[in-house]
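Our consortium's second objective concerns turning raw sequence data into structural hypotheses that experimental partners can test. To show how far this objective has progressed, the report includes one record in full. It was chosen at random from the queue rather than selected for favorable results. The single chain below, 201 residues long, was entered without modification.
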Amino acid sequence: MVQVSADLVDAIRDVFAGTDLPDSPERVRLLLEARREVNAAWGSAKQAFIEIGRALNALDEVLHTKAERDALQEGFARLFPFSAPVASQFKRVAEMIDSGRVPIEDCPGSYSAAYQLALMPPEQVRVARQRGLVSQSATRSQIMALRKELAKRSPSTVNLADLMAEQRRLREARRKAIRELIQMRRRLQEIARILENDEKG
């Protein structure tokens, strides 16, 4: 005998309300067996797409030039059994897991749902977690709906820390460029004096 939670029994009754299936122990048993097999395979699928993403991220580390990266992008489908855009999704999900933003046990079971979660910045992932969407059962449509809702709430989300860092880099680059211009001007003046003295001598 397999122990079945009351919630699952209720779900079966709700899903098959108005039919004879809930009253047939044999058919319910077959449904539960199919569910168990699907859940096991689904768990393996999640592990597989994360491992694929990790392998592709590791591959990126050995591509040293833009030409190599472009060549792989161009011929990706000849080397792998899926497209480069799908590979990009796998890589993004693996990065989300490996960076610790989402624990692997909370990663959605569908790679397309996991990818939608991986697109969210940390503050949006926190909202998704509060809504129960950082979970294995979260669906792509649920996460996409939340992303749309959050985008409407704050249409222009700017990462202030990144913006300030960019400002510092640009100011430093400007200072360096000004110093180089001053040095060039001095050198040009020196060269002009040398040439002038040479012409007089």
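The partners drew two points from this record. The mean pLDDT is 87. Residues 160-200 form the longest helix (41 residues). Both points have been shared with the crystallography group to help prioritize constructs.
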